[in-house]
Amino acid sequence: MTGVLLRAGHVTRRFGGFTAVDDVSMQVHPGEVVGLLGANGAGKTTLIRMLLGLIAVTSGRVDLLGGPPDRRRRRRLGYVPQGLGLYGDLTVRENLTFSAQAYGTAAPALPPALTAYADVLVRGLPLGAQRQVAFLAALGHAPEVLVLDEPTSGVDALARAALWDTIRAQAEGGAGVLVTTHYMQEAQQCDRLLLMSDGLLVAEGSEADIIGSTTAVAVRTGDWARAFAVLAAAGAPVMLAGRAIRVANADPAGLAEVLEAAGIEASLEPVPATIEERMLMLSRQAKAS
Amino acid sequence: MTYSVRSATVRFGPTVALDDVTVEVPGGSVVAVVGGDGAGKSTLLRALAGEVSLDAGTVAAPPKQRLGYLPASSGSWAALTVAQNIDFVAGIYGLAGDELAARRAELLDRAALTPAAGRLAAQLSGGMRRKLGFVMAIVHRPDLLILDEPSTGVDPVSRIDLWRLASEAAASGAAVLMSTTYLDEAERAAHLVVLDHGRVLVQGAYDRVRADFAGVITRTDQPVRAEWAWRRGRVLHEYWPGADPPAGTTAVAPDLEDIVIALSLARRDAVRS
Questions:
Q1: ipTM
Q2: What is the rounded CA–CA span in Å between residue B139 and residue B107?
Q3: Residue range A115-130: average pLDDT?
Q4: B88 near B80, Cβ under 8 Å?
Q5: Cα-based distances in Å from B156 to A40, A224, A273, B169
Q6: Which SS3 state, helix, strand or coil, does residue B9 take?
Q7: pTM for the whole structure
Q8: Do B156 and A126 touch (CB under 8 A)?
Q9: Can you count the helices (H) and strands (E) in chain A?
């Protein structure tokens, strides 16, 4: 086994005059779970579609399992799209048999949580169970690379933990996993994060690496509603956190001035930014440039 | 003004969608309802919006024209432009002329939708469409604003915009009840309600929920009781409801995700026994 399962080298994709992915290089290694983050339109889906060999690169190079992502190599890949890719009019067992036959393997045994649903149409299952079936269908052929698009969207905390157990078990078995997510607590479950903005890979590493030196200011005041209105009117990117106000990437002295001018007493404390706030700052920078 | 549902039970055939649920939504604050698919979030919101009738319990809500409701489905007309969607809804509430033009401009600006004003709703991204739905729900400055999963599937940047819009509505006095599948979003609300299979698993201010959480959560590679453990990144967390972890284990400071999972496990255990 080589050290890299999935690699993009200086990959660019243009649609007409629009550059969806701009000179992106990234890798996924065996045993690691890599999180791909970015706002809608950042280029995540286009990058994934190139990595899977579903669309061609405009320039650069994609390697799946040591070569171009052709049919032969795609057999060794598991993919769970956001829409799950199941057939609603087939039962759980029929869906799993179908995907196993497509990959030339035997249908996987149903876990205890799904046995009661074996002969139920997928359309009628709760979302959490549907996601479990989609995972089973994608894992039946023991893929070496697993690509998951928003794998736990809409399920409850317990079902989400169960799905992450499955993801982690695959990584521990040596697979490389690439996960896109909009859920920041889920991003924290990954070993490494990639952050895309406007087609560019803008940050890479741990949560702390991504946040970098971006800070936020926590504003505490008895008159939060008025403080919120005053700061919002001054153009600050304000948010509520309980009864406190957070302002991303702000200068505390500047905020204090605005509040003082309005006669509002408040305490201001610089705090580390969240990944979301970092993404907000990046998208504002991209719009300004 | 505080709006509420009290001791609400809603049945759909044999399914109990809401089971004796009480939730209060005071003016000037954001209350977040969190839970997975089938937890009862939409039913609770629809009950408060008067869209579904109760089998038991009471609802205190303002009259329809003082209520704003963003349903879980899009909430806008695909074949109309962004501006036309706003104008249509505003017209229903009697806004016209200069007043409508000013309100439309203000809302488009706050939602960062001004550049998209002439675009068909069908051509908006998911995040922009939810923001449009939001704007349409608050065009008449409602006293009670009900938002059904405004942020599900929406990217983090648009989620921040949506949260800011909800905060602004609360800051100007509205009572805001929103549902979400994102626990980190619920942590931000003044009051959060966790629903699980139609029942309230826990509710209160996040600090209160954390302070009242009973038991201990430990971090481990090898859980002692697998049925009480769940995955957090490379390690597992394990819940000890009696606060009696064995010696040598490391306790963690639980976040909302941990608390919700622990309480869900305890509830399933209670149902079994």
A1: 0.79
A2: 8
A3: 88
A4: yes
A5: 9, 24, 14, 20
A6: strand
A7: 0.85
A8: no
A9: 11, 13
Please answer whether residues A261 and A233 qualify as being in contact, where contact means their C-beta atoms are separated by less than 8 angstroms: no
- Helix, strand or coil, per DSSP, at residue B52: coil
Return the residue of B nearest to A281 by Cα. Answer: B157
| Cβ–Cβ below 8 Å for B265 and A158 | yes
Give me the CATH topology for the region B2-205.
Rossmann fold (3.40.50)
At B163, is the pLDDT very low, low, confident or very high (cuts 50, 70, 90)?
confident
Strand partners, A13: A21
Look-up of token digits 């979030």: B41
Query: Is residue B79 classed exposed, middle or buried when 0-12, 13-18 and 19+ CB atoms within 10 A define those classes?
Result: exposed
**Residue A287 confidence class, pLDDT cut points 50, 70, 90:** low
Shortest alpha-carbon distance between residue B72 and chain A (Å): 12
In this complex, the residue of A40, A239, A243 whose CB is nearest that of residue B163 is: A239
Residue spans of the domains in chain B: they are 2-205, 213-272
pLDDT tens digits, one per residue of B86-122: 999 999 999 999 999 999 999 998 888 999 999 999 9
Domains of chain A: 6-210 (3.40.50.300), 215-272 (3.30.70.790)
Please determine, for residue A200, whether its predicted confidence score (pLDDT) is greater than 50. Answer: yes
Element (H, E) at A285: helix A275-288
Q: In what order do the strands lie in the sheet with A6-15?
A: A18-28, A6-15, A59-64
Structure tokens, A36? 């791909």
CB contact (8 A) between residue A153 and residue B181: yes
Does the pLDDT value for residue A2 go beyond 70? Answer: no
Interchain proximity B265–A243, CB inside 8 Å: no
- A185 contacts B154? CB cut-off 8 A: no
Chain B CB contacts of A157 under 8 Å are 36, 183, 257, 260-261, 264
User: How many residues in total does chain A contain?
Assistant: 289
